Amino acid sequence: MATSTAVAARRAPAARLGRIVDRWLLPIYLVGVTAYLILPVAVMILFSFNDPTGRSNLTWREFSFDAWLNPLGRPGLAEAVRNSLVIAMLATLIATALGTMIGLALSRYMFRGRAATNVLIFLPMSTPEIVLGASLLTMFVASVQLPIPQGVLFPLNIRTILIAHIMFNISYVVVTVKARLANFPRHLEEAAMDLGANEWTTFWKVTFPLILPGVIAAALLAFSLSIDDYVVTAFTSGQTETFPLYIYGSQLRGIPVQVNVIGTMIFVSAVLLVVLTTLWQRRVAARDYGAGI
Amino acid sequence: MRRALHLRAAAPYLLLLPGLLWLVLFYVYPAFQMFLTSLWTGNIDSGYTQTWNWGIYPEAISEYWPWLARSIVYGGLATILAFSLGFPLAYAIAFRGGAYKNILLFLVIAPFFTSFLLRTISWKIILADSGLVLGPLKDVGLVPEEFRLLATPAAVVAGITYNFLPFMTLPLYVALEKIDRRLIEAAEDLYAGPWRPQGTVVGLVIGGVLGVVVGLVMDYPAVLMGVAFGALGAVVGTFLISQAFIRVTLPLALPGIFAGSLLTFIPAVGDFVNAELLGNPQSLMIGNVIQARYLQVTDYPTASALSFILMLAILVGLFIYARLIGTEELTGAAI
Question: What is the ipTM of this complex?
Fold first, then answer.
């Protein structure tokens, strides 16, 4: 009895402190760190409404809509944005297809070479981007001595950028798809087969709709990695310019406000896309739950 | 019937083939080619020949070791700082997020929706000599007029920390979120109370050492930084760390710590954008050297040797780290 009161007395101030931490310290910390995370994004958006005096958009002068009315009004900018979009879309499409297939193989088959496959998927993600870009560049340069048709791997152009983007996206797609497949309801496929569907029909009518949210998440990730990539692209681009390369180039001669406008547009569309897919997935989940799945 | 059976046995390989072929052709083979290129001799104008010049490796290391060392120090420091910021953040979202959990997670990944370059350029605006941070501080005289943040090692490390903080926070959150809360309650019921006095001592030592290192790397008074960080560490250790946290939460969070620190450290060591945009010529990293050797000087052999060294160093470090804190399961979490 005496000991337990002593323990209670000793724990009381700690418990009170715990409540103070709960109520005040953690929320204040949360607000502080999220503000720190968002601050540069806010600055980017704010400076898309700037009207800078010189060529460089680094100090605030006055509010202006000019850049928003003419977002591509800089030489080379439209071309760079178009290249970025084309590369990101194609890289996403191909990497998502290849990565989803690997994800399916890894999560539903036991086969020889599984461990080696896992290592091969893991390695590109644990290699710094600069090494990925550098090794591709040496390979492209050395490929002129290989017995392959000229122009496939060298000179560097939009095709070599695409090869590189597909390469670094595959691993991320595999990991995302695999995570979604981890607790996949296999009995639904068995039910479909029992009811006479062949493997092809089962895949497209049962499996694919169920893994679709994972595939979409993987595709969104691949797209955002690709459209934002600077490092690997810088090594594999040759004369081709993408939006990140344009930003980097202009940061030496002065960043035009239009860059912030397009950055803001990309940010807003990405946020909208994520919000919409989340809402859609919730609706699908609610419907499936209602159907008793 | 037999054909169908054969097909079923081949199914995983057919699914793997195109993707793995792509990785072998455009990841494994280029890495091998980079190794071959590092042993070339020659220059871009008169052409290169394969001379198996192994001497390039000792040469490159002896010439560029300061850059290599600086990259490891900056990357390591940024990883530790990202952990110090990201762990409480992930903990707060996982354990106290409540109804705001998804919104908070969304805010953590929101920076990814903006260009990495534009975010870093924003830091240039924020940290400028009379910018958002230093302007007001200088106006009220809290900071001397000649003090600067931009173009210092501190800005480089801060930039790297910022850019990779979500990579640290998300795996930590996933690991913390999975912890069964009943285990912590059980520990508390079994008299796991505050972690004093060990918490005070451990906090003081870790904070102090970190402060001295930060001071030395960033050219601030090391003793003062050590005292300040040490005091902060002691306060955290004394009042915020409980036995239940040390014995239950932290061990269960290890897979997240492993994955998060790798996802932060690896890109941080190879980064050159932060050093280029926020640093000065004395704070350049190995990434800057590799980039310049490849794209400006076209000295392919040296550049290839350096990036091969970087790749090898990271893979060896990864292996040792996995052995030290990881089991198979932990490497699995990183995958």
Answer: 0.89
Of the candidates A59, A134, A175, the beta carbon closest to that of B290 is on A134
B107–chain A Cβ distance below 8 A for any pair: yes
The continuous run of DSSP H or E covering B47 comes out as: strand B47-50
SS (H, E, C) A118-169: HHHHHHHHCCCHHHHHHHHHHHHHHHHHCCCCCCCCCCCCHHHHHHHHHHHH
What gap in Å lies between CA A76 and CA A70, rounded to an integer?
A: 14
Identify any residues that bridge with B242 across adjacent strands, giving them in sequence order.
Answer: B194
Residue A63 bridge partners (DSSP): A50
Taking CB atoms and an 8 Å limit, are A21 and B240 in contact across chains? yes
pLDDT digit string, tens, across residues A105-123: 998 888 888 888 988 998 9
The DSSP-derived string for A44-98 is HHHGGGB--SSS---S---B--HHHHSTT-STTHHHHHHHHHHHHHHHHHHHHHH
Tell me whether the omega of the peptide bond preceding residue A155 falls within 30 degrees of 0, making it cis.
Answer: yes
CB–CB of A266 and B271 under 8 A?
A: no
**Residue A130 distance to chain B (closest CA, Å):** 6
Does the pLDDT of residue A73 top 90, yes or no?
no
Q: Give backbone dihedrals phi and psi of A50, rounded to 5 degrees, phi first.
A: -90, 160
The length of chain B is: 335
Q: What is the pLDDT of residues B16-45, one digit of tens each?
A: 999 999 999 999 999 999 999 999 988 878
* Chain B, window 279-318: residues with a beta carbon less than 8 angstroms from a chain A beta carbon: 287, 290-291, 294-295, 300, 303-304, 307, 310-311, 314-315, 318
Interface-testing mutation among B35, B67, B115, B160, with chain A (most A C-beta atoms within 10 A): B115
Residue B27 corresponds to which tokens in the numbers above? Answer: 């990841």
CA dist A164 and A129 (Å) reads 11
Shortest CA distance from B299: residue in chain A: A138
A138-167 tens-digit pLDDT:
999 998 888 888 778 888 999 999 999 999
Entry pTM:
0.89
On whether the CB atoms of residues A91 and A162 are closer than 8 A, the answer is yes
Question: CB-based contacts of B272: which residues, under 8 Å, 6+ apart?
Answer: A130, A231, B284, B285, B287, B288, B290, B291
Distance from CA of B163 to the nearest CA of A (A): 9
CB pairs under 8 A between A and B: 236
Considering CB atoms only, which of B88, B89, B267 is closest to A128?
B267
User: Would the CB atoms of B27 and A41 count as touching at under 8 Å?
Assistant: no
